[in-house]
Amino acid sequence: MQLDLDFVRSQFPALAGEWAYMDNAGGSQVLRRVADRVADYLLTSNVQTGASYAPSQLSLKRVSETRDAFARFMNCDPGEIVEGPNTTILLRFLSEAMTSRLRPGDEIILTNVDHEANIGPWLRHEARGVTIKWWRCDPETFELDLDDLRALVTERTRLVCVTHASNILGTINPIPEIARIAHEAGAELVVDAVAYAPHRAIDVKALGADYYVFSVYKVFGPHHAVMYGRRDKLEALDNIYHYFFDKDRVPHKLEPGNINYECAWGSIGAVDYVEELGTRAGAPRGRAAIEAGFALIAEQERVVTARLMDFLLSRNSVRVVGRPSTAVEDRVSTVSFTVGDESSKRIVEAVDAAKVGIRHGDFYARRVVEEHGLMRQDGVVRVSMIHYNTVEEVDRLIAALEPAL
């Protein structure tokens, strides 16, 4: 089965305009059905949950359905879904909720390829005597070596924090293997999945992560985010909400100020959309349809990534920053590169006139960019495609890039 691109593109009103959007790792375009749901919530059920009157009960029902939808999306229990405004905030909440469990001499392992969202919150514990260890990538290949991780973990390791897919490199990291290494040492695994979630089906049970976080606004939805946490792990966390919230009041003790109801209700549209892609391909509704939908997504993204990668690898002046492979198990459709000693800013600005949206910089994964000397070129050029991008759009990009290279 092939993805029905006419159907796909009809679901995103912004795609009817002149621009080709290839900055999707910063935020995808939004489904019409998502916007309709946000408007519907605000216009028909915009009241606080928890009261006895009917509109409040409707609001509560809708918020509960959000957890059901993302439990289906991630293959977990609805009570294991924590929501918030973005991944950065949810990881800060998680870090704060671990305060009483992290003691002087404990160890946290961080990578230098992660977005700062999965670094900064954990560095705060260093002032309390927690030891930070760095799992650094190879300076030539930008790969994280599992043997290096094995050498870092000890009986004092409490957390390993890693991205599922780098928002610069596009590399898919082997989360199940990383989880095994962490768990054998008695540590927990925190995964930032922001750059992975738009591209592949998520099965947190198979992955083995203890905490798994992504932002819905990268997955065709509103500015909202979701965190899975194993139920027993969530119950053991500190309460970061009001003092009268019991420690086992999950997930609400981890959602201070409550969640954004209209964004939560709107986000269901993103789950429904992927599920519909699967049912249109013949899969039964539910988890099977979500997996089938993402299989179609992955193949379309492989095609457009291969088109771009073939061009980039044909140019002697271009260095692809990350894996040159376009296999679906190796990378997502986020491709970064540099051009000799040229400014990445100049390359991107040369493309703007073609009405193709790409970007340059460090994308808040600044440590890997700084440590490998890429800041002097204004960072990398990043082309981040998703399944609604077409081969024709990639050809437009290539035509605009060629004279700039």
Automatic annotation (TrEMBL):
Pfam families: Aminotran_5. The keyword Endoplasmic reticulum does not apply. Keywords: Pyridoxal phosphate. InterPro entries: Aminotrans_V_dom, Cys_dSase-rel, PyrdxlP-dep_Trfase, PyrdxlP-dep_Trfase_major, PyrdxlP-dep_Trfase_small. Residues 21-397 form the Aminotransferase class V domain. Signal peptide: none annotated. This is Cysteine desulfurase-like protein. It comes from Plantimonas leprariae. The lineage of its organism: Bacteria, Pseudomonadati, Pseudomonadota, Alphaproteobacteria, Hyphomicrobiales.
